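Q: Got a minute? One more chain.
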Amino acid sequence: MGLFSFRCFILVIALAIVATFTYLHPASAVLAHEQYVLTQKQLDEGFAASGINVLSALDNPENLKIAFFVGLGIIALGIFYFFFQYSKIGKKLDKLLLAMDPVGHVFLRIALAASLIMSARLYSYMGPEIPAVSLRLGSFFIPAMYVIGVLILFGVFTRVASLAGLLILIAATLVYGEYIITYLNYYGEYIALIVFGSYVLSFDNKLFGISKLLKRYKDVELLIIRVTYGISVLYPAITIKFLHPKIIVDIANQYHLSEVKWLFPQDPLLISLGTGMAQVLVGLMIIVGFETRLASFVTFFLYFLSVIYFKEAVWPHYVLLALAAYLVFNNGGKYGLDHWIGILLKKQSV
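A: Always. Here it is, folded:
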């Protein structure tokens, strides 16, 4: 199977999966984002709770022992990956994955379109916790999201459709303020589509060709996507897992996370600390572009596990999963530590 045929095969599979979830997945499924896995009363109590220091989980000697060995494991994994990605096998894998970058771009477009269509179908925006009626002109946004979603899906007047999508996102930000940082990755994708357009398997490509800006500033597009995605990973870790750990403790108790012994410790407070630190670590790695593939794969794995374990509606995760896959393909571009370290090592070897 040639590379083009393989790309087409992957895209067909992706479209089939998205279509299945979009039209067959029940809207009443249990949800698992921290922001809406609990009832509003539980969330209010969690945000109001004070005096809980997430670092107090380390006062327990057993928890400290677990944290120590997990930390050593993470360091060992990071060191192993560092040497692997610059090895001969790692470089061959890099070329193979970079060849899939166009597929990753289409993944992003499909994911964004599916998210908008599903939002319109469920009268929500980006997630079930944001009802469309809570936005000004909310009733107008429903048909608008259908139209924008379809246009982006097929790559028709993508820049105009993305601009309209960005305006709706700005409207949501004016209503929900700081909370929209959770969805900052949408800003990154809209801005990238507005500036660079849709250049793979799209009608725009046939009508207008590939943007000259893209040929010159492709890595700027990747930087925008990487930074906004990394911040969207960091924000809930800091604001919820560190500052309001009671929310995670309630989730851990309600869903019996401690029973998943291969992944979670017994102490719910340590779960909040551990998952928060993991999110902060991978978020920072993605932002600065260090071991980007590893960090992005970890986020993909954790989001995927969240969907499977909590049996939740998948559509709020479409863009998150697609972004993680996209960064695994392209490794974050030239404006990151991975690229600069590679250049330095190459100079030293010469």
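A: Residues 3-349 form one domain.
Q: Perfect, thanks.
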